[in-house]
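Before any further analysis, backbone shapes were mapped to integers, which produced the following:

***
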Amino acid sequence: MSRYVCCAGYMPCSGRCGEAKCPQLCLATEVFCCFANSVASTRFLLQDEFQIQTTKCDNCIIGFMVCLSQVACIFSIVACIVGMDELSEASQILTCCSDMVYCTVCACMQTQHKMEMDKRDGKFGPQPMAVPPAQQMSRFDQATPPAVGYPPQQGYPPSAYSQYPPGAYPPPPAYPK
């Protein structure tokens, strides 16, 4: 908190909100009153600090979010002017969809923020996202160790599947020489 500046220094009010005296109160006020600015300024700060470029996919998602909120706003204004109930309902549906998209995008951005800060702080180790180990498939007639915490499972009785020939791949075709 010793380095905290309101809205990461990207807004005109930054540095004038009493951050030096009580940064916790200023941060709580920023998040409560200016949530969108808080998320965006944190994103800008991390992009500047780690020299991260916004991807085309990020731009597309953020652009869709902004366009949807603008369309919802326009529908609300037109519904107020015209006074049609159907248009007012469509405006409310668009606003609800816009809010859901906004909340989803903000959650994704904040997850990216957390991942970048954890990477910066060395909480991941050498490889943050590793491929899981390969798994082996087993057949019913092979003995497998029981899962931890569960009683051993009984397989099908031999009569249930003994009528079928053992599973195997067909032989490869013989090609003439």
In short: The mean pLDDT is 78. Residues 36-121 form one domain. The chain has five helices and no strands. The longest helix spans residues 85-120.
